[in-house]
Please model this.
Amino acid sequence: MAELAGVSVRTLHHYDEIGLVRPSARTAAGYRAYSAGDVERLREVLAYRRLGFGLREVAELVDDSSTDTVAHLHRLRGLLVERRDRADAMVAAIDREIEARAKGLMVTPEEQLEVLGARLYDAIGGAYTATRRTEPRIAAQIWDALGDAQTVLNVGAGTGSYEPVDRDVTAVEPSAVMRGQRPAGSAPCVAAAAESLPFEDHSFDVAMAVSTVHHWGDPIAGLREMRRVARRVVVLTFDTDEPGWRDRFWLTRDYLPEFAAVLSGFPSLAGMADAIGARAEPVPIPWDCADGLFEAYWRRPGAYLEDHVRRAMSVWTRVGPEAEQRAVRSLGDDLRSGRWAERNSDLAELDTADLGLRLLMA
Model:
């Protein structure tokens, strides 16, 4: 196993001792015996290690119960593509400087730092940040709900979209991968889960959560924790109470019925509102929504055929590759034949759509 993985036997022993990769069995001679599942876990551990993650972060990543093997592969692929793109951009910047110096041209300090600086990061982006960003019109509705709050806790903060820049923000994000994609200068971020927030009662003016509740192990417990640590709560979530909610969006109605199973255990909107004493208001999605959330491309169906667009949406990982491939294939056929346009002709004149996003305010 050590030879196959390209590591030392001592490394495998250490992983076993700290509980990172514990082989399922031992041979009669006392050797560690690795099952297929053990090998998958070892592969994930070594891949994250070679991407520069520390052992504690790696343990957090591979123990994430909401992420299966396919999700890990997509995550690793995104990280590797980002690293490749960063390396390619650095090579291009170095080549430009070599060419300039060969011609005797002056190279400014700004140009010298471009190879490592923020402009490079902005240019290449990442697997998630390529399509997930703040949509100004949705942000305006969220920030208006924050009112005059000065101290804000952003729970399940991800990469920092929708964090107001004019407030004192503290972020909470359990995923090391997401924390690693937060841009320089963003709010300080604490590694913690919504269900167990490491803050005293009423520590913040308001606690906010944007498109994250469906990822929590216990949404109601997380919402109550937000209510405990803040005087007010603002949450962007999804409504499954409305009769026929599965048919609101053509993608789930005609191509991805498995979406209903993804939210089968999700609390009702009424239940979430009752848990924190909140009222709800609709959040319309503009046709040219800048944030690549699942419903964002309701008037731009071709986007769902793009792999990099789907990779930034957790729904596709949850439904599995078979359902994803079938949905993409069927949608592609309907777009080429004109069936999609005929079936959804009423959307062409709409500027916004109510597809179930709701803002809870308590």
About this structure: The chain has three domains: 3-63, 69-130, 136-361. The first strand starts at residue 25 and ends at 26.
